[in-house]
Amino acid sequence: MTFIQGSCDAAIRERAARSVIEGRPRVDAVAGIEARAQRRPDDTSIFRSDEPTFDEILSVRAERQAMVTEFLDAATPALLAETRANPWGGDDWRPSVGDCARVILEEEWAHLRYVRRDLALHA
């Protein structure tokens, strides 16, 4: 997996969690790249045919980080306790907004760890 693919996979999981928090339908593509775990051979119309540039990936990442920061600044205990629909469909699980926020933060932490590990290997 390339750095860009890893960044997109993490960003897609974060976007799914944000969609649940905001009560919106899930969107699985970031910068036109689909998550490897979400491949849908039947509909690729929303995806790019070319690789995004590194600058595009960094721009999308900065935009997503700003969205999370704004959300956390305004979050209240009552909001974090609210439940949302299962992002993967079905009614067997209704995550709280806090659960979704934790997914986003855990993904960010894991992403930072992997980047530091990979950069240390190339130092």
UniProtKB/TrEMBL annotation:
It holds the Pfam family DinB_2. InterPro entries: DinB-like, DinB/YfiT-like. Residues 37-114 form the DinB-like domain. It comes from the Bacteria. This is DinB family protein.
